[in-house]
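Example record for the data management plan.
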Amino acid sequence: MTKLFDRRWWVGGACLLALLVVNADIVRKEMILASDNRVLLKLAPLDPRSLMQGDYMALRFQLAVDARGAPDYDQQSDDGYLIVSVDKNRVGHFVRFDNGVALTGAEQRIRYRIRKGRMKIATNAFFFQEGKAKHFEQAEYGEFAVDTSGNPLLVAMADEQLKSLGVMKR
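Corresponding structural encoding:
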């Protein structure tokens, strides 16, 4: 009887811990979404045959392409931060990898991860309502909400004139 009681506590504790972790992540992302700090990142071309598949769009950002061309790219860790210069239209442009130097007023820190040799900025896919592929084909930019730590969250796509095409499906 004591072993059964102990197992129930362990299972209950593990379930509670899992719920706390998931909810903490949800709260963190909701806080990022509530931020008014938005940055637009230019999309980089992809193979058109794999651009639209079902109800999502495969993404690659010009920021990652530019960072990969930096002379110090090979010395960077798999997880880190890029420094982007944000212009008057809120479009971010690669400046350098974060090296601890203080940011200027127009610079923004953006977190990146390298997985399987590809740099990932927040996500590599944009999900939208089924049947809306034609609408999102004109996307030229991804719109990100960015928290004070540089964590980006993709919230919408924008066209060439920086006009929002709509938000990500939840």
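Summary line stored alongside the record: The helical segments are 2-34, 48-51, 62-68, 133-136.
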